[in-house]
Amino acid sequence: MTTVQQILPIDLSAITSGHLVMAVTGYSVVFLSLFLLALLFSVIPKVLSWNIRRTFDDEGDEAKKALAGNMIPGEVSAAISVAISLYLNELHDQDTAILTIKKVGKSYTPWNSKIYNVINFKGFQR
């Protein structure tokens, strides 16, 4: 039976304390930033609804103040976004994506008219 060291020979003596410090520092920075982002994303909706609720408290409108705390669930937002996406995709017509290029017999176009002015010196006099 083959062991892991026979399949993947790893030399653990090559790992120094500097390598371990760098690995621990890198992993801790990544996990700390992920934790802070998750915390930030969970706090932002609460702060926004608190701000809206405070604005309606100043105005004194009870119906709007009651609606300010209600959040739309994620499932409802996902269903609305899927419906909008399907609707917008139906607006586009489906093309076959076949291009046909035909050569035009006339070689003069406004795009190459400057070359004719440069070559034609018949009307030029000093």
UniProtKB/TrEMBL annotation:
<keyword id="KW-1003">Cell membrane</keyword>
<keyword id="KW-1133">Transmembrane helix</keyword>
<dbReference type="InterPro" id="IPR005899">
    <property type="entry name" value="Na_pump_deCOase"/>
</dbReference>
<dbReference type="GO" id="GO:0015081">
    <property type="term" value="F:sodium ion transmembrane transporter activity"/>
</dbReference>
<feature type="transmembrane region" description="Helical">
    <location>
        <begin position="20"/>
        <end position="44"/>
    </location>
</feature>
<dbReference type="Pfam" id="PF04277">
    <property type="entry name" value="OAD_gamma"/>
</dbReference>
<protein>
    <recommendedName>
        <fullName>Sodium pump decarboxylase, gamma subunit</fullName>
    </recommendedName>
</protein>
<dbReference type="GO" id="GO:0036376">
    <property type="term" value="P:sodium ion export across plasma membrane"/>
</dbReference>
<dbReference type="GO" id="GO:0005886">
    <property type="term" value="C:plasma membrane"/>
</dbReference>
<keyword id="KW-0472">Membrane</keyword>
<keyword id="KW-0812">Transmembrane</keyword>
